[in-house]
């Protein structure tokens, strides 16, 4: 076939269209990248379609400058997913496509995989025998690492740590080692024999067989299993089967669920290279991981949200662990998608099964089960013979407490420590105290740029805003009246201090974003708990996900009450999920666990329901309430959010937008209203909510309405974005 004369290209611009270019004769297919002229710029775009003709007049039609690929970077399935996502989220196709590529590829980097390999020279060998280089253990180690074999940069980094590269220069300058860029070879031989998992229990076997039977066609499964029931073991078996059939697997995890433990379990089990994609990678690392997946070098791709767009050669199955997790939803920037929902769409397009795993499935997901769209597979018992934990409430009004820790909770910690167990204390607030107060005049340290208080960070001697990142030195005295100021309320830092006082000599490990700053910090902290060195673990949300702490027998939820009375209709769901997830950290090994939830509202139906009937019972009640109140999943929502320098401008745009909606049939408009925290980082935020009984009506409306919003004069004074299926409201 002769090359198509016209290429229809997606370019990274906010315009809702493709751009036609003349093809000077390259053999181009959809999914390949091209460099094109665009105004005075040159942009990298992706060919979405080829055509014989165009409406662009010949004198305005420009030619492609350069083809960048000789095979598509997106296969047909991914292209279809991107088109679908652009339509469903009403976002410009060019930006959707850009979001699906690593930055290096957006800028035109080559997809073919070259890697840097180092080897030792004969002179280097002689030097090594002579005991060189003297006085530099780091260089010695590098030379020694290359003695037996050449190694890739990635291998050297893994073996010698980040500082390996600094050691290369002096050695290369003396001619002892050399490097070369070589094309990625065939996958290395298996590093060891693949591991064998435990024999599956009855429920695990049933679930595994059911999913395996669907390999080769689309089917959506919800693997609902309490924490520790062996869901990961099921993922491993299903992946194993897909690999045996010559197919690859895509495994999605929430942002903080991508633990070294989980990666380790996949790595050990299969002995094949994995590609791991997460937000902590540098651009070159991301490109390497992407290439490994693209070339089929890595057959299993493990990653967070945006990995839903990762190439997987011969995709055979998609797994989304902790599918309820809010971090699957991109909730800032322009393109706000749900990776969980896209995973289902991708599986459908690729005709492969998708497994959504959770101990606490989202209410939307349970609704899809009830409607017959998804098949539920239940794991009702803990795998390793661990008994379910006992859960009880502690009435905070009836007991004395120090730094938020009640007497019964402290006694329980003592009891569990005495019996050789470990205790986990959960508090979803980092820092020392959420408020700095002057007891004389009532002054409270505010953030200048947000409607928020500054949090006290005692160790750093700073006040910090958790919303905009502003910080200031911790004042000794009230700037208003000169009286002494006092931190009020609890954060994890203060809790750690209180625990250290109460349990003198008992090592405490804290896990939150203040202590986990660099790569490796999380691993180190988790390791201190797993090894038994740390006896008490204090942490935020970060402790609730993924980690397996077999010797933790007690979990204390310091305060369950945030979330009981929120205006966001999803707050109860999130609270129930958090409680169940954190409770699941107790008694994962062979010892029975105990969970204590401190609250000032022990009679609140959410808490009593959760205790009496578990998550199941909670979900039933909550879904009935959603139906009655006409909230999702019984209706469809979209939110237009904006921000501006003034509150008036933010509201004006949304007011104009609402006026444009006129009396659209079947669409209920709520607002505009200022966001709950209207001022954030110096800008004012507001929101207009759209609700519709059905998806079709909502999307038809948006299709016609959005282009008109772009033309509103008031749009120029704001930044705005559409959020379809918003997860967080107000
Ligand atoms: P989940 O992912 O549901 O939290 P995991 O798969 O991590 O559960 O399993 C919890 C623990 O039980 C792990 O230590 C795992 O190795 C172990 N385990 C899983 N399945 C079995 C089994 N069939 N027999 C024995 N131990 C198992
Ligand atoms: Zn004062
Ligand atoms: Zn702030």
What can be said about this structure in brief?
The chain is of the alpha/beta class. Helices cover 31% and strands 23% of the residues. A 7-stranded parallel β-sheet has the order 11-12-10-13-14-9-15, sandwiched between helices. Strands 16-28-27-19-26-25 form a 6-stranded parallel β-sheet, sandwiched between helices.
Any descriptors?
730 residues; alpha/beta; GIY-YIG endonuclease; Rossmann fold; 5 domains; six-stranded parallel sheet; 32 strands; binds adenosine-5'-diphosphate; binds zinc ion
Secondary-structure topology with pairs:
Elements: E1 6-10, E2 19-22, E3 33-38, E4 41-51, E5 66-67, H1 76-88, H2 93-99, H3 103-106, E6 114-120, H4 122-129, H5 137-145, E7 151-152, H6 153-160, H7 164-173, E8 177-183, H8 202-212, E9 219-225, H9 231-244, E10 248-252, H10 260-270, E11 274-277, H11 283-294, E12 300-303, E13 315-320, H12 339-350, E14 353-358, H13 363-370, E15 375-379, E16 390-395, E17 401-402, E18 405-406, H14 407-418, E19 422-426, E20 435-438, E21 455-457, E22 462-464, E23 471-473, E24 485-488, H15 492-502, E25 508-511, H16 521-530, E26 536-539, E27 552-557, H17 571-583, E28 594-599, H18 605-629, E29 636-644, H19 647-661, E30 668-680, E31 683-692, H20 695-710, E32 719-724
Parallel strand pairs: 9-14, 9-15, 10-12, 10-13, 11-12, 13-14, 16-28, 19-26, 19-27, 25-26, 27-28
Antiparallel strand pairs: 1-2, 1-4, 3-4, 3-5, 6-7, 6-8, 17-18, 20-24, 21-22, 22-23, 29-31, 29-32, 30-31
Helix pairs in contact: 1-12, 5-7, 8-9, 17-18
The structure holds adenosine-5'-diphosphate and zinc ion (ZN) (2 copies).
The site of one zinc ion has 8 residues, from loops.
